[in-house]
Design a protein that fits this description.
Blueprint (H helix, E strand, L loop, with lengths): L22 H6 L2 E2 L7 E2 L4 H10 L11 H23 L5 H11 L7 E5 L3 E5 L7 H18 L6 E3 L8 E3 L10 H17 L6
Antiparallel strand pairs: 1-2, 3-4, 5-6
Helix pairs in contact: 3-4, 3-5, 4-5
Length: 203
């Protein structure tokens, strides 16, 4: 299971391209490597994991996750990152990552159940108690992973090349190499410094 790093808020980075439409990209990027600092993890505590789920419309406001639930979310993130890395590299995905995503996929309900309320009468109700909110969030994220890696955007899924950045993104054009202008500026600045100083030029 993935281990937590730090708990401060994420640095002011814009969502990586693709994150606005693919919550699984946002999940993969919920732990960020900041140059010159320790990684920043927005799922490091149950409270932060709860906030992340609510902000991404994967859980209702007011829910309170326990450590076990946040650990499940972090564990899925670990496997999604492994799977995305394989997609970007064009290599075979780790079997454990594929199994984890498939396990999350089967948590998706097939239909809302029929219910009766003395005040509201007949209604369709969620087929799970609130204690299973995280399981259904995991299922939604896994569905997004499956749609992304099997859809037309799969060949544009990439890892940012501006080390030490660890974010994934969906390329807006074939030559894009960085997840943000900030990463691109940092690489260009490093190249300029290398030219002036004679140091090895970064990739």
């Amino acid at each position: 299971m993935e281990q937590s790093t730090r708990t401060p808020a994420l640095p002011p980075l814009p969502p990586a391209p693709g994150g606005q439409t693919h919550p699984s990209v946002e999940l993969a990027n919920s732990v960020v490597v900041v140059p010159g600092a320790e990684p920043v993890d927005s799922l490091a505590t149950p409270a932060e994991a709860t906030r992340w789920l609510v902000e991404h419309d994967l859980a209702p406001a007011g829910v309170e996750l326990q450590q076990y639930c946040s650990a499940l979310l972090m564990d899925l993130r670990h496997h999604v990152r492994s799977l995305f890395g394989a997609v970007g590299d064009g290599t075979e995905p780790p079997a454990v990552a594929l199994r984890a995503v498939n396990d999350a996929l089967v948590r998706t309900p097939t239909a809302a159940l029929l219910g009766w309320d003395p005040q509201a009468g007949w209604q369709r109700v969620a087929p799970h108690p609130t204690t299973q909110i995280v399981e259904h969030a995991l299922a939604s994220l896994a569905v997004d992973v499956a749609e992304l890696v099997t859809g037309p955007e799969a060949d544009r899924l990439a890892a940012c090349e501006a080390a030490p950045c660890n974010r994934f993104f969906v390329r807006t054009h074939a030559r894009r190499r960085w997840c943000s202008t900030r990463c691109g500026d940092r690489v260009r600045a490093a190249r300029a410094y290398a030219r002036r100083s004679g140091a090895p030029t970064p990739a």
